[in-house]
Amino acid sequence: MLMAVGILVLLLVGVVINKERSALVSWLSVGLLVATGLLVILQPVDGVVFNGLFVADSFARYMKVLVIGGAGLALILAMSNAEENGVHKFEYSVLALLATLGMMVMVSANDLMSLYVGLELQSLSLYVMAAIKRDDTRASEAGLKYFVLGALSSGLLLYGASLIYGFTGHTNLNEIVVAIANGGRSIGLIFGVVFLLAGVAFKISAVPFHMWTPDVYEGAPTPVTAFFATAPKVAAMTLMVRLVMDTFAPITQDWQQIVIFLSIASMVLAAFAAIGQQSIKRLIAYSSIGHVGFALVGLSSGTQVGVEGVAIYMAIYIAMTVGLFACVLSLRTDTGYVETIDELAGAAQTRPFVAAIMAILMFSLIGLPPLAGFFAKWHVFLAAIEANLYVLSVIGVLASAISAFYYLRVVKVMFFDAPIKQFAAVPGELNIIMGVSGFLVVTYYFTVGSPLASMAHTAAGSLF
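User: That's the sequence. What structure does it adopt?
Assistant: Structure tokens below.
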């Protein structure tokens, strides 16, 4: 409620002050996200409201904090050179907040109706954000592609929801569990589950519903891509976890096959498709597809340990991704932002701090110990092995080894190739975000590892 009222107030503030003076609205937006985050943390009240449409539990609170954190950091990233990126309009911050509000509804959805409303509020805002740089044909193309494919995925999800309603007689997720447990599985219900999960898989860009990701990531302005790669992924993954672990718990055997397929396909395709990429943003797009596959390894286990693994993975993924985009936005030349990997040549000589943080994040994305990325993969693979999913674990480890090639290639270009461009000075806020991200990734085991595992354990426990 605070978030919704705050968005309307900020919309009025933006109109009254000045359409082009977006810095004030941007900082107020970050302040609103901080206030909402504190309210989520400091009001730990569990329960169901709005006649069963909305649920508040430990899992929802944990994921909402990640969503709000990812959205807030992405907004701060957007403030550096906002005009060049086309995100200097005050509407950008308002759209980001509307998308975040939709994600918070998704995270706490306890009914197929509220689930869809949250999903569409997020999606419609993201479509406009992708095309916000109106004079850029690539951004317009990205927005249109995202809109057309997003509409298709919404259709799949709605069709699945209608089948589930038809075969169980309920839209409330708690009542659907009871109906499935009492009535048993039917072929119509299984079809409904398949379509519903296909719609959600599109939102997390799991293969084979990933087609939009590389194009949209490349075409949209970089700060918008940073937003896409963080908060919406967490919200959609939360939705996937809640649906399969809670609503479809009586038919675990059936949904497990779907999730295992999505996981293997995402890990393998991303590992090979990223090898030939020259664009940095396309590389990050395939990297995010791969990491979704790794997170689904934990979910495939169908156990509390697996959900804990997913919760930890998403937190570490956000820290790494925000740091990576801060690095990309920091490497700016006279002609604009670096777009291809070759343009990073010699960054270690001209911008040693940025190159060092980017190298650390690349090693973490591979999953090398003792960096945070290693522990993220450790938790999900541990859950899969405990559930006897040995083949899935082996495929995951092999995909991780293959992905090392394209991550290390970026490090090689930065440190061993001769400089070809002079990089501009780095904005202060980006230095801070890079520094904090690098510090957390390196010292994860000694600093945030134990408290994060404890919070993930509490969050996952509320689903069982």
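Residues 137-168 form the longest helix (32 residues).
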